[in-house]
Give the backbone structure.
Amino acid sequence: MVSRPKRAASAVERKRRSLKTVQVPSTQDRYEDASFLNIDLDVRSRRSLAPLLAAWPDARDPLDGLSRSRWLILRPFDTSNAEAAAKALLRQIGRLKGEALECWNLAHRKVFDIGVQAGGPGRPFEEVRLTPKTLGRIGEVGADIQITVYGPVLRTPGAAKRLA
């Protein structure tokens, strides 16, 4: 057997050897973790919701007045978890009286919209829990529950999390 002389490494081979190995983060590590964001109370009516807006000064018209006071969103101050947020909204509903209560009762859409930020693949998220008592109270006030899942957000160094 004849041995061949070693050939000189090409420029491409030399470059390839000189490159350092780059650690690519796993798919899971590239995304922010899943998280509970908030519960929005979404109220819509064919009639004016002005009495509700007066009773809930922190509520807002998501169309900045274009809905002619027929759509409002109320967010709770306590958003530490879904149970606390739902209870805070139920307290607000429980305090309604007079025209505001009538306005609530006549609204055709009353929804506790639970917002969740999705995380990367492979990680379960089980942090949104409501007790049977709270679920029952939501039904008693005539409201529905909706879950909105916002798409995953890429993790970037120093970037703040997106809030819904």
About this structure: The first helix runs from residue 11 to 18. Residues 19 and 128 are 46 Å apart (CA to CA). Helices lie at 11-18, 50-55, 82-94, 98-106, 132-140.
